[in-house]
Amino acid sequence: MNPEPESPPPAPETERPRGAQLRALKARAQRLEPVLKIGKAGLSPAFLAALDEALAQHELVKVKFAEFKAQKKTLAPELAARTGSHLVQRVGNVAVLYRPRPDTTD
Q: How many domains does the chain have?
């Protein structure tokens, strides 16, 4: 009896930016103003929906930690995971997230 071949693990939607692409994203992010601020409500469904919309429109988004500054080291990667984006950098109380637009060419 032949066992079924194992299916490969699901591939991530996009690969993490590296090298020259990462440097270019950081350079672009320097000129951006924060689009959203994490306030007292934290990572509420409304905030995550707004962040998802911002990423869909802009690809590269700055998020400022107005509250929860002590937890920013754990919240920034959580934001990336919950929105399907990549954490480009975290500087001070600001995190930069990147999610490329889906390829719509058919």
A: 1
Rounded to whole angstroms, the Cα distance separating 40 from 10 reads 36
Half-sphere exposure of residue 102, counting CA atoms within 13 Å on the CB side? Answer: 5
Question: Does residue 3 lie in a domain region?
Answer: no
Give residue 40's domain range. 19-98
- Calculate what percentage of the chain has a pLDDT beyond 70: 83
Neighbouring residues of 65: CB distance < 8 A, sequence distance ≥ 6: 37, 38, 72, 75, 93, 94, 95
- What's the whole-model pTM score? 0.79
SS3 64: strand
pLDDT tens digit sequence for 33-84: 999 999 898 889 999 999 999 999 999 999 999 988 899 999 999 999 999 9
Give the 3-state secondary structure of residue 89: strand
Give the CATH number, domain containing residue 37: 3.30.110.60
